[in-house]
Each structure stands twice: as structure tokens, then as C-alpha cells.
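sorry for the late reply, my laptop died twice this morning and i had to redo everyting from scratch. anyway the thing you sent over, i finally got around to it. pasting the sequence first so we're on the same page, its 146 residues, then the predicted structure underneath. double check i copied it right bc i was rushing
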Amino acid sequence: MADVRSASGPEITAADLYALLRLRVDVFVVEQECAYPELDGLDLLPGTRHLWLTDGEVVLGCLRILDDGSGVLRVGRVCTSEKARGTGAGARLMTAALDVIGNAESVLGAQTYATGFYERFGYRAEGEPYDEDGIPHITMRRAPSR
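ok and here's the structure:
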């Protein structure tokens, strides 16, 4: 059974961060052929929460939640390994993310093909699609719970 792990930016170990960065580069840079600045300076900030799914030492998927103090949390860098796709790994990660987010408002920049996935978790598309590093995206927002 895969386990969901969590750490804030200052708490994450070098080995865990390396594993997450490797998965993100494998998926976004290599698989999707998207050269972009993966090392953006946000992973180690106190307001960053990393969530990842492991099977033993293998990272199956990950995401991060950014809290910049504005009251709106940002979910990003959501990805699953090729071998974990279709297993529910992404849904487990998003469920864990919503446990962290709670009633707060949150946004994410979804690759347009994935909007249906995020809609299952209460996110709604807003605005027009936009190009991010050669891949069509759209902003999606989950309203705060009352």
C-alpha cells in the first residue's frame, strides 16, 4: 500500500526533495518535452507544503501547496510517474491536498486536458486558456468553504 508523505519546505530532507525534483523533471521536462525553470526558489520556503506518494522508496506522485500569506493557496507541480497513472495515485494526492487546504480558497494552473480531473475536487475553470512553456493551461479555482 502506497503512503502519502508530507513536509514543509524547511522540513524536507535533501534526499526527499531530490526524489521529488527528479520525478518532476522526468515528467515535465523529459516526458512532456517542456524546458522550464524547475528550480524556482519556492520549494524550501516556510509556506510551501510538499505531498508525495511512495511505494517503498519509489515516488509515485507529488504536488506542492504554496502559501504566500494572501489567503489563497496555490496547488502546483502535480504529477505522477508513468507507472502510477491510472492507479488512483493522483486522486489520493489531491485528496490529501484538500485535507491540508481545508476551507481555504485555492487555485491551480491546470494543463487543459486535466480539467475534468480537477473538477472532481471542486475546482472550476476561470478565464481563458493560456500557453505556459508551450503547453495549454487554464486557471482553476476552488472557492472557500463556508
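Helices lie at 14-31, 89-101, 115-119.
thats about all i looked at so far, will dig more tmrw
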